[in-house]
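Q: what sequence does this backbone want?
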């Protein structure tokens, strides 16, 4: 039960690392984890130590010494884009959890190139260079690789008609999934496709609300923290009042990944919230928390924009337009409900009741990035 993990310094990857340590040290259901980390301003080893020592790490790690944790971890100092079979075959693992990649939601040519390089080309490089000892490949995709749909989607991608995407990021993840399935089939490697939805801070393992990086929907709070004082007139915000965001806590995502790792019969899994949080139920609370009291929900993008609206719709509004202004992506959650029941969690994973706690925590942290 040895495994290679990529993306360990990221939001999901670091929490997979934490959950691996729980399974390895406490439950003893897995063994050793090899972690690929690039050297940067700090060495790869020092970057791993920074993750393990960071105050934002889960409290359950306080029960174990750094030495105990490091016994279960080994660093492979390398860049994934150039990693080779000669490097990888030096290490004893038979499974890979590939979590590394770009999550840029921008529509620019630069972003398009970035997601193609960091998502598709890196994934291709890794699979091509895998040692023959590897028999399983877990690919961390996104629930939004289904693109824009007008019907509920299940966990089986091949049963869906996927043609329209909100941005190049979604398309890159879809293309990666297709490649992973085909390439692994040729190499006789079992592929598992795991698709987390929009990720928020921790809601299961204390300290709560923590995440090493505040991005995606947190970008809205970052925008308001910087520009809310410019909202001097009525703010007309374009949302679909029947739709919402599908948000999952990062610690739930890591538990779902390890659940799939320990249940190899799971071929594809949408790691989603059975109940989205409706835009009409949170947008006003967020605006009012930034002292914007004059606002209204509208069904079409407004014309004759005031100064604040111009700022909003040219920046964060354009980025999230197809997430908040059109019908949302709906999921059939039957498979993920089994894990939710197994963990005795609330059906909404605590997201609805803690949404403003998550927002307020990010503001208190000043959106600072950990490790």
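A:
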């Amino acid at each position: 039960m040895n495994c290679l993990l990529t993306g360990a310094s990221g939001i999901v990857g670091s929490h997979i690392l934490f959950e691996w340590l729980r399974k390895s040290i406490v439950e003893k259901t897995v063994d050793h984890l090899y972690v690929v980390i690039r050297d940067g301003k700090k060495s790869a080893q020092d970057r791993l130590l920074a993750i393990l020592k960071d105050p934002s790490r889960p409290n359950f790690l306080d029960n174990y010494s750094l030495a105990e944790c490091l016994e279960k971890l080994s660093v492979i100092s390398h860049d994934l884009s150039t990693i080779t079979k000669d490097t990888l075959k030096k290490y004893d693992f038979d499974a890979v959890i590939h979590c590394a990649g770009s999550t840029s939601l921008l529509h620019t040519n630069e972003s398009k190139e970035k997601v193609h390089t960091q998502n598709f080309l890196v994934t291709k490089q890794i699979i091509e260079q895998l040692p023959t000892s590897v028999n399983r490949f877990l690919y961390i995709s996104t629930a939004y690789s289904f693109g824009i749909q007008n019907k509920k989607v299940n966990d089986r991608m091949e049963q869906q008609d996927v043609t329209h995407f909100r941005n190049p990021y979604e398309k890159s993840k879809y293309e990666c999934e297709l490649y992973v399935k085909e390439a692994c089939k040729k190499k006789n490697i079992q592929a598992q496709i795991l698709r987390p939805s929009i990720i928020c801070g921790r809601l299961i393992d204390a300290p709560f609300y923590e995440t090493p990086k505040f991005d995606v929907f947190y970008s809205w709070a970052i925008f308001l923290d910087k520009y809310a004082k410019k909202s001097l007139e009525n703010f007309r915000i374009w949302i679909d009042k029947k739709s919402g965001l599908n948000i999952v806590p990062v610690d739930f995502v890591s538990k779902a990944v390890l659940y799939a790792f320990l249940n190899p019969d799971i071929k594809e899994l949408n790691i989603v919230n059975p109940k989205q949080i409706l835009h009409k139920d949170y947008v006003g609370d967020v605006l009012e928390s930034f002292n914007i009291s004059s606002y209204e929900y509208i069904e079409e993008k407004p014309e004759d924009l005031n100064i604040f609206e111009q700022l909003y719709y040219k920046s964060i509004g354009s980025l999230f337009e197809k997430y908040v202004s059109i019908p949302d992506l709906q999921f059939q959650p039957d498979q993920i409900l089994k894990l939710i029941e197994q963990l005795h969690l609330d059906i909404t994973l605590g997201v609805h009741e803690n949404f403003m706690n998550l927002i307020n925590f990010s503001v208190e942290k000043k959106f600072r990035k950990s490790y």
